Amino acid sequence: MYDETLSPARDEILEVARADRTSLYTHSVIGAAAHVLYDMEEVLFEHGVYDPYTRWSGPLPARILRACAERFTRECLYVDEDVEPVKLLDTVVWQASVHLDAELTPVEGPVMAVCRAEVGYVSLPRAGAAPLLVTLGRPDEAAAQMIMSSGGGGFLGPYRPGPWTWNLTTRTPGTYFIGDGTRVVAPAPSHETAAEVGAIVAGVLAGDIVPPCGVD
Prior knowledge:
By secondary structure, the protein is an alpha+beta fold. It folds into 2 domains: about 70 residues, no CATH class; about 120 residues, no CATH class. It has 7 helices and 6 strands. A 6-stranded mixed beta sheet has the order 1-6-5-4-3-2. A hairpin with a 2-residue loop joins strand 3 and strand 4. Helix 1 packs across helix 4, helix 2 crosses helix 4 and helix 5 packs across helix 7. It starts with 8 loop residues before the first helix and ends in a 10-residue tail after the last helix. The model has no long low-confidence stretch (mean pLDDT about 90).
């Protein structure tokens, strides 16, 4: 049975996550990936195929973390309950304040952006730096396709919402929201998920976590 206090799986997944150049990962995602890694290693060792399997397929931790990120992204696309970004961003601010042991007063928000996409944001102060923006929204896949295919000069179809996504950035969402800055890979939006994002935000504001895509 998996026990994260006894297994090195969590440390192996964390090592991969910290090397990621585009994303940060919530506690739940790391935990899920570590559990999968432990179970897979158990089966491969039991059948005596661990070495030949990993020799051909590459290291398991990186592949499993990618697979788990894809799974959670899919869950964030098909969300049954109504998502209220402003309320969830309030939870992010509250939980970040708890972790910092200091009340955070937003520079702006949480508010919904003036944007054709569904996205909310909150702007948080940072000493000697531009405010940190936390966004929760559904990136405009039609706009992203237009920008990537023609540099912004092609035909823009109707808004096509992507999966709910958390991002850390310094840029306020504009007319077209395609997701900006560092993505936070997380379970489907909920107050529990927002609390985990709040812990990451606190780490960024304290200087303990450096978003791979930068916030300067």
